[in-house]
């Protein structure tokens, strides 16, 4: 049994056989050859090596011609690596003596080479490791062992173990078979984490290097509550996790009884409790769990989960479905938040050194109107079917908000002129995710119809911590006093100007933090569907006075850790059922 510690990003427990994706994400099962297949397999390998060599040589010539010999030498070096006698001998030995398939041998040998280079702790050689993995990928492709798409063809339940999973790969995981996942990289606020929560897949990220120690099919426990991953658990550990799984299921069943009860404190202070969704089909769960509406629809996942760029009609169909299925409840559509860790179909920006500070979100939409306009048209068209609002993400300056709103007006005019059914008088809001917007909030509130605080980005930009970087995960805390003070200012300004305000960042999905926000005066939270009933349970277990006392005490504290310890204590006192043991 091996126990690993990572960052818990999506709660719950999953138990199942491992499916290990190598660093490039390919699934190469260990398969053995019959004795009479060995010769043909070795010939297949030789053929693949020849084809890759030809490809590398032509890359070298073409690149040298375009970018100079120095650049072309990258491929000369790869050619040299591919023909390294020790590497070739090791491949031959595995096929001839151990009867491994060529694909499996290639994946293991090149992987070990890359790892050895990485361990030398020399940045230049670490780059070479990427070259080795590139050769691996090409050989595997020539051997027919991988196609371009990852994670296809699952036919049994698995736990995915990978170096990295992108948000779009996570969005496309086959929920019928994938029970949970853990990755070597990734941070607490990344979109991979958010999608995992949306899919209700227990997940642990940022574990550091461990894949070398794991084989396919060994039993794995993913503990998404505490950030633990247990490989090959002993019978005692397995039994205790099975017990926890059972306890979780019975808590979920108990919480489902709250579905139709209002989210209000013991003494009757109401909270509007909406849900965050990434996909239209999630509305079913939202209704099942009694959501008051959709407080954040992350529409960029329409891009990330389809092979082709969505058309205006695709947008329209998705939004109409959501608003119809919500049966009159309000739906807030957030416009595209692409860029940084969420990339679309075509390169929308040049290479950026700091993509989280670069051309992302509303900035990207405003510079790609052929992408933005169809979405705005679809939102106004879908608004005839129900209660739709629109909000713009990552607004930093007043000019950005004005430009986006103006574009919405222009689009409404176009629709009117062409006689297309639509509704133009929908509320237009902004997300508050950048400290600059908080500082200017008194001006913004004069122009916006509502505010929604995105604490995931607000924490990232306030604390100067990349939300998806495992190395600084300990610094990424939405309960940091600096973030709390910014939220308090938003609440104050919104109240003064009678401007509706909600919080849709992940912070509000944590029951203890939800109580704090309630105590700070927030009356509308939007949380992942998986958290709706837990947050409702917490709210229904306290008085508003208790929440306010919590807020008063917390605002005197100096560190996120103190805040969280205090909040956990209070939660244990008021709602012990929700404490995970
Ligand atoms: C946020 O930043 O808090 C937010 C809700 O938006 P996203 O997580 O999609 O960036
Ligand atoms: Mg955000």
UniProtKB/TrEMBL annotation:
Residues binding Mg(2+): 433, 457
Domain Phosphotransferase system enzyme I N-terminal: residue ranges: 5-128
Limits of the PEP-utilising enzyme mobile domain: 155-227
Xref: Gene3D superfamilies: Phosphoenolpyruvate-binding domains, Phosphohistidine domain, PtsI, HPr-binding domain
Binding, phosphoenolpyruvate: 298, 334, 456-457, 467
GO MF, any single term: phosphoenolpyruvate-protein phosphotransferase activity
Keyword Transmembrane helix: no
Span of domain PEP-utilising enzyme C-terminal: 254-542
GO biological process: phosphoenolpyruvate-dependent sugar phosphotransferase system
Major location (coarse): cytoplasm
GO cellular component: cytoplasm
Cofactor(s) listed in the protein's UniProt record: Mg(2+)
PANTHER family reported for this sequence: PHOSPHOENOLPYRUVATE-PROTEIN PHOSPHOTRANSFERASE
Protein family according to the UniProt entry: Belongs to the PEP-utilizing enzyme family.
UniProt function note: General (non sugar-specific) component of the phosphoenolpyruvate-dependent sugar phosphotransferase system (sugar PTS). This major carbohydrate active-transport system catalyzes the phosphorylation of incoming sugar substrates concomitantly with their translocation across the cell membrane. Enzyme I transfers the phosphoryl group from phosphoenolpyruvate (PEP) to the phosphoryl carrier protein (HPr).
Name of the protein described by the UniProt record: Phosphoenolpyruvate-protein phosphotransferase
